[in-house]
Design a protein that fits this description.
Blueprint: H1 4-25, H2 30-49, E1 55-57, H3 59-62, H4 79-84, E2 91-97, E3 103-108, E4 111-124, E5 127-139
Amino acid sequence: MLDGNANLMHLLLLIGIHSIYLFYFRVYGGVQEFITFDVYKNTLRYAIDNGHLDVDLDRHNWESKYFQFFAGDFYEVIPRVAQRFLASDPVTGSCKTSTRNMNIGKGGYDILQVNLTYNCELGINRDKVTEFQLNLTLHV
């Protein structure tokens, strides 16, 4: 049986031969791709854990011609909103993602595909009105 130093030298030799093989023959995939995806996954996990991908929903950042972030926008979709709130009451919310359903993979030859799930909620005057989940696929 080999001792620890001999095992380490054997591993380094294999990595060196593999690196030379990749350099001269331009083979893509394998170990380098695995390490690259792991770096991407850890970077994304760090961003999610520290709230960098969380989103505050309000009319200043997300207003569109179809949804202006007022209670009146919900009147036809959620009838109980019309009974409890004025049409001019502002709607706010937030979307947070977690690492639970995160997935990173190849989306093509030179495309990285990232799948995230956002858990969102919208409220009016600090009362929660609805919750929803948004599955997002990004091609980078």
